[in-house]
Amino acid sequence: MEGVKLNMENKTNSKIDLDSVFSVKNVSVNYGDFVAVKNVSMEMYKNKITAFIGPSGCGKSTLIRSFNRMNDLVPSAKVSGEILYQGINLYDQNVDPVQVRRRIGMVFQKPNPFPKSIKENIAFGLRVNNMTDNLDDRIEKALTQAALWDEVKKDLDKNALDLSGGQQQRLCIARTIAVEPDTILMDEPCSALDPVATKKIEDLMQLLVNEFSILIVTHNMHQASRVSDYCAFFTTKATEDGRRTGELVEYNDTKTMFTNPIQSLTEEYISGRFG
Amino acid sequence: MSNELELSKKRVPLIEQFVKNFIKLSAFGAILISIAIVLTLSTEAINFFQSPEVTLKEYFTATRWTPTFKNPEYGVLPLISSTLYIATIACLISFPIGLFSAIYISEFASKRTRKIIKPILELLAGVPTVVFGYFALNWITPNIVQKFIPGTGVFNAISAGMAVGIMIVPTIASISDDALNAVPKGLKMGAFALGSTKRITALKIILPAAISGIIASFILGFSRAIGETMIVTIAGGQYPELNLDPRRAMYTITSSIVNVSLGDTPHGTTAYNALFALGITLFLMTFILNLASDYISRKYRKVYE
Amino acid sequence: MNSIKDLTKTNKEKSPKEIIFLCVLYLCISIAIITLMTLIFDILSTGSNRLFSDYEVGLVTKQQINNPQDFLTSLDSRDPLKAGIGPAFVGTLWLMIIVIFTTFPLGTGAAIYLEEFAPKNKITRFIELNLTNLAGVPSVIYGLMGLAVFVRLAGFGRSVLSGGLTLTLLILPVVIVASREALKAVPDTIRQGALALGATKFQAIFRQVVPSAIPGMVTGMVLGLSRAIGETAPLIFMGALTYVNYYPDSPLSGFTAIPIQVYNWIGYPQADWKNTSSAGIILLLVMLLTMNSIALVIRNKFEKDW
User: How far apart are CA B127 and CA B163, in angstroms?
Assistant: First the structure.
């Protein structure tokens, strides 16, 4: 019987004082009567990079969308269980989902800059959140933090769609961090990019993690072993009606997971025997 | 059956040839229809302009259209002005109602609500124009216009304009809805992920991205308003002089075509030919607008890809 | 930095600007819907006055016209309470038959050619461009063209044939587009499969693709037809406006049609004519509703889920 594998006790690190950013307890996400991911419990820590890995279809993207209440936009989606963000239940009645999305940013798989100028792409989020003081400074800071400033500073009015794929994705990261979130969710941010652009983003993540907590979904486990501090491995289990529900198999710090995985499924995935 | 390998082409049966030619002719018939329209309108229109009583100058500058009077006057100006006037009233009503309805359907309504509202709009689109004309004359004029705007006659441009406006709403709404839905979902998600509300996302992100389709729908709506016949004939009345007071009757190009033919005008008379002059004027106006609409929707469509 | 408590302080989707905007949206959609309802209600109430009323004439003779059948079968009259829509109804039926028999072959034929056989060259694009333009031409222009071509040139005179042919040309672009959509919906694997069995292109198209597309084509025909029977402007030049009070007996006979008759009645000033016009409109709307329902049934029952 599978289910929860909460591995706080198995941390081989010494007792570093780790702030918990997300506290997930028995969370399941349904679409109508289809259970996309079941019974996940875990903690995610501040200023660390946590990776969700596993074969496709096990609900990783669905799960992180419940962390910034993007699932609210899908009418049939239902989230059960408890997601505490810095102590506050994200799904409490009094919580404003619009504010949540400002605090917990998201970068998508396919870069989706607005068909506007580079400047306007970043200004949009700032305006929407009433952060329009020192607009130009904020824009420059965001682009710098996203390692894009030098490449675009000469022409901020250029249309964002004229940028390369990697640059567009860094622009999307820039506009996300411009609104000053605490956490950034990244849903397979590099899968549409070439290796050079991918490396740039991975390097960028190492810089960003000093200021933000990062949660990345990736189907590339090598990437996970490269960039992440903690790793959560998911897989699917078939249900009675023939559909597959995602489940958390193992959660550990990355080093341990890749050298000394506890579950055999994890070991098989990591050694490439499936997925 | 022979056992030899028969790979040479078989003879095409007669019926196949016949059908192939038939469908080809049918398709080319489209060109034929266009030619027929342009030819018939032009030849009679040319006859009109060549008649002794009519000069091009008079056509475009005189301020009365009275072809059946004893001393006929052939000024198209009052007709064009009335046509544009009523069309403008119609668009002032239909653009906001149509566009906001489209925004509601595409960005705010639940699936269930959409399933109810879209058929209702299609129903509205299927109402024959003579019914709208009846509605304008017998309901809108007494119950709305005459109640709130003093001095309005039984035949007036406001009622006609309102009815034409409502008639066009489904056109604007459905084309705009298509344009809004064609915007890639990634843009919407990106905006929400930054903490944007539905309203801001709809107005600042989706609407601008769909603007070419929306403008194309506006132009198309305007073109339809100009070409509308029965509503303005029934509710707009006749007033062959230049009139800028919407509370009184206004005589459009289309209603004057209808009214002249009512008199059973004999072929070959100037009045008969005048119909075609009006026809070609109307045709050119709507043709140019339709081309513009098509061009805009095509040229600016891929801006966000 | 804002504290985490900000998450519970606001509800941005419920802020005034959002609510006002939502109200504007509701208002707009309501205007459209309420107008439709008002229209239908007004027509039903005034029309039923005419269709279900008793009428007594004189002190000695009593006539009762109180059911829709009489309205349907009576001739027009100077008396709004006696005027019936018989000739116009039959005229419309004649028009429908002519339209069906000319539009269906031409429309579906052109669609099949354009969709399946036409080479993708400039000429084909030109044809398609023409069709798009024709769809936007005001119906009164088709009337003028019909007057010149069918009434005069072809010598059909002001007859139901001229009217029907004019209507055909009017709805042809619509029917062609609908038929093309129906053909597009047939998956390419059907065509490939037929060809792979040794069928010629002609056989593959006409024996496999077209039969699968027939429900969609019929639906398109019905929708085009429902547009045609509601049209008034193109028929005006067919002399249908002059006081025609007889049933057409041949394609070359004079005629009147429901929308024309209604238009005439609307023009009469006496108050009772309002009810009569409404009654005519009810008939028209019932016919449209029936036809659209048939189209829906065909679509649901016969269209395949590939």
Answer: 12
At A162-185, the pLDDT tens digits run 999 999 999 999 999 999 999 999
- Please list, in sequence order, all residues whose beta carbon lies within 8 angstroms of the beta carbon of residue C101, skipping any fewer than 6 positions away: none
What residues contact B112, with CB distance under 8 A and at least 6 apart? none
Low-confidence ranges of chain C (pLDDT < 50): 1
Judge whether B221 lies within some domain.
Answer: yes
Other CB atoms within 10 A of residue A238 CB? 9
- What's the domain count of chain B? 1
In a domain, B286, yes or no: yes
Nearest-by-CA chain C residue for B163? C35
Candidates C144, C268, C273, C284: best to mutate against B (most CBs of B within 10 A) is C144
Provide, as residue numbers in chain B, all residues whose Cβ is less than 8 Å from the Cβ of C24.
100
Nearest residue to A106 (alpha-carbon basis) of A181, A185, A175, A173: A185
pTM to 2 decimal places: 0.88
What lies within 8 Å, CB to CB, of B52 at 6+ separation is none
Say how many C-beta atoms besides its own lie within 10 A of residue C279's C-beta.
28
* Residue C257 tokens, joined: 């049609």
User: Token pair for residue C16?
Assistant: 């005034």
Q: What digits encode the pLDDT tens for the residues A64-87?
A: 999 999 998 888 899 999 999 988
* Residue C119 in tokens: 């080479």
Angle at B158 (CA atoms; ends B155, B160), nearest 5 degrees? 65
What amino acid is encoded at A201 in this protein? I
Is residue C51 assigned to a domain? no
Both tokens assigned to B35: 């030619």
Asked whether residue C6 is domain-assigned, the answer is: no
* Min Cα separation C61/chain B (Å): 33
Per-residue pLDDT averaged across B200-212, rounded?
94
Distance from CA of C287 to the nearest CA of B (A): 12
Q: Is residue C100 part of a domain?
A: yes
The letter for the amino acid at B38 is V
Q: Print the domain residue range for C188.
A: 72-302
3-state secondary structure of A92: coil
If one counts the domains in chain C, the total is 1
* CATH number, residue B186: 1.10.3720.10
Kindly indicate the confidence band of residue A11, based on its pLDDT and cuts at 50, 70 and 90: very low
> Which tokens hold the place of A128?
């929407």
Mutate to test the interface with C, among A69, A96, A138 (most CBs of C within 10 A): A96
Candidates B120, B132, B226; nearest CB to C33 = B120
CA distance C104 to C93: 16
For the question of an ipTM over 0.95, the answer is no
